[in-house]
Amino acid sequence: MSKCCVICVGRNADRAADRIEAYAKKADFEIVETIFKDTKSVERLKFYIERDSIISILVSSIYDISSDKSC
After folding, report:
1. For residues 4 and 55, what is the distance between their CA atoms, to the nearest angstrom?
2. HEC states along 2-48?
3. How far apart are alpha carbons 54 and 45 in whole angstroms?
4. CB 3.0 to 4.6 Å from 53: which of 10, 11, 19, 48, for a disulfide?
């Protein structure tokens, strides 16, 4: 089972997170954490990545959370 972190931003982040989590469970991913509406999301991701706690990051859309600019 692959470990992943789900990240969602924007107006409908909670609904997008629900959809992505459902997909992840069907695809046999273990969800370590779902992050949305968090000002420290970059630091939380770095924590997981540096400790090899996750191997995948699932996002609702491409968004540069370090500079607050949509890509």
Report:
1. 6
2. EEEEEEECCCCHHHHHHHHHHHHHHCCEEEEEEEECCCCHHHHHHHH
3. 9
4. 48
| CA-wise closest residue to 45 among 9, 63, 55 | 55
In the block, which residue shows the tokens 């370090």? 66
Q: Are 68 and 12 in contact (CB under 8 A)?
A: no
pTM for this structure? 0.70
For the purposes of burial, counting CB atoms within 10 Å of the CB of 1, is it exposed (0-12), middle (13-18) or buried (19 or more)?
exposed
H/E stretch holding 50? helix 41-50
